[in-house]
Amino acid sequence: MTTKTNVYEIPDGPPDPQPALPSFDYAEMGQGCNPLVIDNSPGCCRAGWATEQDPRLEFESVVAKYRNRKVSAGPIQLVGSSIYSDPMAKSSIRSAFDGDVVTNFDAMECILDYIFTMLGCVEDKIDQPIVMTEAVCTPYTSRSNMSELLFECYNVPSVTYGIDSAWSYYKNTGTFNTDGLVIGSGTMATHVIPIYDMRVHTEHCKRINIGSVSMEEYLLKLLQLKYPTFPMKITEWQSQNLVQNFTHMAEDYEKELSSYLATENLAQKDITIQFPFPMPSLDERTKEEIQQATERRREQAKKMQEMAAKKRQEKVEERAKELEELTAIRDSKDELDGRSYAMRLAEAGIEDDRDLEEAISNAQQIVSRAQNKELGIEPEEKEMPTFLLVNIPDEELTEEQKQEKRKQVLLKAGYDARMRARVEKEKEKVRQDEIARQDDERRLNHFDEWLADLKEKRDKTISRMEERRTHRRELNDRRSHASQVRMRNIADLAANEGANPTGKRRRRGEQDDDFGAEDDDWNIYRDISKEDEAEEDEEDEAELERYNKQLSLHAPDYLESLDRAARGKIENATMYRFTEGCEQAILEKPAAPQKLDNEAIVARVAREYQLHLNVERIRVPEIIFRPGLVGLDQAGLLETIDGVVRQTGNRVSLLNNVFVTGCGFAQVSGILERLKCDILGIAPTGTPIAVRRAADPLRDAWRGAAQWCVHETDAFRASRITRQDYLEHGSEYLREHSASNRYCQVPARTSPPPT
Amino acid sequence: PFKNPEYKSGRRWKNLKQVVAQEQAASDWPVDFPAYWAIDAPPSLLPQKKYCDITGLSAKYTDPKTNVRYHSAEVYQVIRTLPPGAEQQYLALRNANVTLK
Prior knowledge:
The complex is a heterodimer. Chain A is α/β, with parallel strands linked by helices. In chain A, 50% of the residues lie in helices and 11% in strands. In chain A, strands 4-3-2-10-11-20 form a six-stranded mixed beta sheet, sandwiched between helices. In chain A, strands 12, 13, 14, 15, 18 and 19 form a six-stranded mixed beta sheet that branches. In chain A, strands 1-16-17 form a three-stranded mixed beta sheet. By secondary structure, chain B is mostly helical. Chain B is elongated, with a radius of gyration of 23 Å.
């Protein structure tokens, strides 16, 4: 058995979440207009104070509102991962996002409530400027709703909107002065945004609608199709877990793909995922216990035998008693007179003298036989009964004697037949012994030849069984040759109705045929019927067993090697490697007898609950480079990067500073090397190319925003949308800054839109 | 406590598709302004490589009956033995399945 080093036991669901602890230092933290930074994104929402290093709160942006009459009268609102622990909540889960844009503002309100409450705000209104992230090029409607929510509902003094990946860039670069290309991979989409001239240029950015959610869905669907009969349901959380842990980006997709299922690579790259499985009921007894059980059974059998013997003994004794009685009656015949004798006979239930004699002789026989058995004397061969009358010709006998003679003829025929059968059996036995002896001799003297012969015989038996099986299968298939032959037979017979197959003369003028008069006629049914030749099958199987036993005695490796060859053939097939990795194949009809001990049984059951990840490991992350894999009609990441660079006027300086961040593809191992390789291919020769990843792809956006608004105070002050702005310029208003989207005032359409 | 009690919540919210469609039609957008719908990456201009729908390896062949792409003759045998709806599921992976309206 190959040692399984790559087995991963997948947990059922996420570990129980730690509930967040509310803080109570709102007043101190809030002094000096300390901004509240909220990193709002479809996967995870992070919030905290700008002066701190890390976000205080981190939770999933999901909300569940439901009524639970038992617990409380009003509706309960839950936010975050605590939802998964309550099944009622799980069914009414809502996300604030649709894609990467906030559309459900009820949920958003819930989330904001949660944030402010957890941060400890007890006052009438929020006094802190809010810094919030938004999607790249958010639709105005979304922004206006958000501003409305913040200003009307929470009465915040000011809001600043920005792009999360840009702030992550700021955190890792320290400034917006350096040119760079930001690849922000979110849960729902991936953006390519150029940064130059101190600013994020969203007019040249592009979005590919593939994010980590797409990867998880793709993996889930792939696994479900690969193992359609898998006994368990794979949940989305488990798919997420697998994507995070095992997928990696291939540096050269085509090359790795072609070699992934080759034997050398498969052992290292294939991952076995073990799902929790129910333990089979095992025979937990130790060897001693099993021995004891057999001993007990043997004793029980012995006891039964003894009881049977005793019963037989009793019966014999009964018969002996009967015999005595009957002989007594017979003896008393001489003493008593007629009537009392008749009465005595009637008592005993016997009709007349002859019956009495018969009864006596029967009883005597039984008793004597039992006595002989005890003494171990074989019953003597019955003497050949005399058949006196047989040889005397008919004419010389009387009627009675003729009857007698007929009886005796029948008896003699029977007796002769029995004798003949006995002789035949003995001859047969002698012959078999002779064959066995010869076989043994041969084995001892010419071992190799004997062995070769044995193997041949075994092969022939197996091939005969195979033929019969295929023949049976073909008969069921209407279009096979065997079936057509059968049909032709039936048609012939139907056409020749009345013709006697044994070739006797046809009775002229007779309408009915005498099919069935001869025994051979019924053999036709053998050819027509589809039924199994069950007896021949059994014979062949018994033969096979014998051969196998002999082989296992004298050449045990042979059967093993056959098995190994069969397994090797199965394991070399691509589909087998694809679905089962490096596992040993389970043969349906193994040549060598297999003993399944407890360990083997558990292993078998465990195997039913196992999945193998091999090609999926590189196939799933590849979708960002080839969206066609999931049917999305967009350009891949590389082409998009190329397009963006061209649009910015061929600024190859951007390629010198490619920055990957976010919670989606940025976390897939191998993406940096892959990007570097690929960009090298499209860039003009000699351009310096550098690809790097954010130090903490998940949280750097929040940290960047916090750092930015604390350090770049002028820029920050200039970016705040105050309540005044909101009221004057409308809810869609946005003040641009280095990390923000673009804004322009757009007049309402007066003429109908072009179709 | 920090919420404005007069704020009305619980309005009907539109989903993204409706929002985008509405916004696009409502105003005269300047051509090069990066609106949400404008920054979508365009379709690819490079020739698409074909991959086996079953195994994920490269696919040089396509099954004429169902348009499933496959890697080798062995995989084709597997395709032949699939139950009736399964090929459509494989095609659905890349949005190539037949949907009856």
